[in-house]
């Protein structure tokens, strides 16, 4: 489909000795998979289980990945949607996506032992929202309605002081004027390109609008989208490992498709239809920020059952971010 893409990574060579099969060049994006916030959230649940013993309740999926959730269930975690499902004497962990202020307030009222696994980059957006409200600004929040992170962030401020913006049509329909004190924030797992378009539209309509000092889209989301932009032009098909309710994973599919490359979201290797490989000489592979590397290797092994796979990793950024654990789990 396209000319071979220059490699900056390493090739791990041929993974099958069946010479009668057509070779499949597999371009694996880097960075991919777990980010620092996801690593931290999973470790929080595991340490809570070690410290308090099973069961430990988790409000909402700790991260959007069924494999991860099932593994933690096997260790004694119980996942619930609301606090009223948590017994009074049981510890509870809040997910990496963040929660509205009403949730820890209710936990305090019930004297529950809770651990907040909110990603520090999401917590940063929460603090920004509080500061903007303190300055008397109405917040225009760019995000996807119903996503846990959006619910959590909008729940940091009093009702009526924040408005969700999802599309350019939403921007056009806003009732505010250029005399209103306005600010904006964004969900951390959005499409970099989509968000830039929305921010440009907001600034054009409201020149007085104030934004954060640095963009809210997290480094992992940006890096994974940039990595897909690296592999997609050279690929006939891109596979993205991630859950349908994982915003950052869905955005990776969209990034590849915008570059004119067919892309599919899969949760496990078993989701792959061998017919997808027909006519595919080069395939791209990446994983959303909630997908473990084990699932990447599972996909490679599955592909090797059908084709002679030649792996090549294209590195577009290095990541070394580490977030501290809550003090209550380290003392």
Automatic annotation (TrEMBL):
Family matches, as Gene3D superfamilies: 3.40.50.11270, 4-hydroxy-3-methylbut-2-enyl diphosphate reductase, catalytic domain
Q: Which UniProt keywords apply?
A: 4Fe-4S, Iron, Iron-sulfur, Isoprene biosynthesis, Metal-binding, Oxidoreductase
Q: Please give the CDD domains that the UniProt record associates with this protein.
A: lytB_ispH
Which positions are catalytic residues? 149 (proton donor)
Give binding positions for [4Fe-4S] cluster: 35, 119, 218
**Which residues does the annotation say bind dimethylallyl diphosphate?**
64, 97, 147, 246-248, 290
Instruction: Paste the cofactor note.
Output: Binds 1 [4Fe-4S] cluster per subunit.
Q: Which cofactor does it need?
A: [4Fe-4S] cluster
Q: What does this protein do?
A: Catalyzes the conversion of 1-hydroxy-2-methyl-2-(E)-butenyl 4-diphosphate (HMBPP) into a mixture of isopentenyl diphosphate (IPP) and dimethylallyl diphosphate (DMAPP). Acts in the terminal step of the DOXP/MEP pathway for isoprenoid precursor biosynthesis.
Does the keyword Ion transport belong to this entry?
Answer: no
- What is the name of the protein in this document? 4-hydroxy-3-methylbut-2-enyl diphosphate reductase
Q: Which GO terms describe its molecular function?
A: 4 iron, 4 sulfur cluster binding; 4-hydroxy-3-methylbut-2-enyl diphosphate reductase activity; metal ion binding
């Amino acid at each position: 489909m396209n000319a071979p893409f220059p490699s900056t990574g390493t090739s791990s060579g041929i993974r099958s000795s069946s010479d009668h099969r057509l070779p499949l060049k597999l371009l694996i994006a880097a960075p991919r998979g777990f980010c620092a916030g996801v690593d931290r959230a999973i470790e929080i649940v595991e340490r809570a289980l070690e410290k308090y013993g099973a069961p430990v309740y988790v409000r909402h999926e700790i991260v959007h990945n069924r494999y991860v959730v099932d593994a933690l269930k096997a260790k004694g975690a119980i996942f619930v949607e609301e606090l009223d499902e948590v017994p009074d004497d049981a510890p509870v962990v809040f997910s990496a996506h963040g929660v509205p202020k009403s949730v820890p307030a209710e936990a305090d009222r019930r004297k529950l032992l809770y651990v907040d696994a909110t990603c520090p980059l999401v917590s940063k957006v929460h603090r920004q929202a509080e500061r903007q409200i303190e300055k008397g600004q109405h917040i225009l929040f760019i995000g996807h309605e119903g996503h846990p992170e959006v619910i959590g962030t909008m729940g940091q401020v009093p009702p009526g002081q924040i408005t969700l913006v999802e599309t350019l049509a939403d921007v056009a329909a806003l009732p505010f004027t250029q005399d209103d004190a306005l600010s904006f924030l964004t969900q951390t797992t959005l499409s970099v390109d989509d968000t830039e378009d929305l921010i440009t539209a907001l600034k054009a309509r409201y020149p007085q609008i104030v934004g954060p000092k640095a963009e809210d889209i997290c480094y992992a989301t940006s890096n994974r989208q940039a990595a897909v932009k690296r592999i997609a032009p050279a690929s006939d098909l891109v596979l993205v490992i991630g859950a349908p309710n994982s915003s950052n994973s869905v955005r990776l599919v969209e990034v590849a498709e915008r570059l004119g490359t067919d892309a599919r979201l899969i949760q496990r290797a078993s989701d792959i239809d061998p017919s997808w490989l027909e006519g595919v000489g080069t395939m791209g592979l990446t994983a959303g920020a909630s997908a473990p590397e084990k699932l990447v290797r599972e996909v490679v092994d599955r592909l090797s059952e059908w084709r002679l796979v030649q792996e090549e990793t294209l590195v577009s950024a290095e990541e070394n971010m580490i977030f501290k654990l809550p003090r209550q789990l380290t003392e």
